[in-house]
Amino acid sequence: MARADVASPDTTLGTLGRRPDLANLPAWVERADAGTFLVDVTDLDPLARILATTDGTVTEILEAWANDRVAVGGISQREESLVAPLSALEANARSLVLRREVLLVGAQTRRPLLHAESMILVERLPATIQEGLRQGWTPIGKLLRAYRLETYREFLHLGRSAAGPLAAQFQIAATDNLIERIYRIFAGGRPVMLIQEEFPERMTDHRLA
User: For residue 65, what are the domain limits?
Assistant: First the structure.
């Protein structure tokens, strides 16, 4: 039975739902490989600056700021085999990955908070976490914490760009900026996830209250 706080797959989010052929890697993977840090965080508002630089889970920060539980408001995901090696995950061609796109929202307000895409080597994770990821209802940070998986995050990219097609999700203008951060998560000494997160540059203008 579908959870009430989750939209049906492939209906509310764009990247995976619009692209039937998933053989090609998403464009943001190239930025992860580049390892560039293009944003001067001093010009961000306090919350956006914290989100841009934290090495912890953003769900806890968002919940404290919004005084609301963070939920998955829309999800699109599917599993596929890589057609070429993915260096950021130290994965060979034909490795099985879960490609996942979610929009995190306030559980009570339903206001959008953060858009994320990820590529996950599910076979490197415990079976309980694999199952939780495939169900899709729980943000990744909460899932890792619930099963007490020891992880390490390595930042690969920090940038800024116009919201464009994501503007409608965040209820902002297409010319308003989003901050993008890309990082990978290690578990057991091996990379298991490559994650891209985007959120409004001016989070205090995006307040839930």
Answer: 30-206
Task: Report the CATH number that the domain containing residue 142 is assigned in CATH.
Answer: 3.40.1410.10
Residue with tokens 């307040």: 207
As given in the structure block, the two tokens for residue 42 are 């001093």
d(C-alpha 145, C-alpha 119), whole Å: 19
- Rounded to 5 degrees, what are φ and ψ at 54? -65, 145
pTM above 0.85, yes or no: no
pLDDT per residue as tens digits for the range 100-136: 999 999 999 898 999 999 999 999 999 999 998 888 7
Residue 39 belongs to a domain = yes
Distant-in-sequence, close-in-space partners of 182: CB < 8 Å, separation ≥ 6: 28, 31, 32, 155, 156, 157, 158, 194, 195, 196, 197
Tell me the Ramachandran region of residue 72: left when phi exceeds 0, alpha when psi lies from -120 to 50, beta otherwise. Answer: beta
CA distance 26 to 131: 24
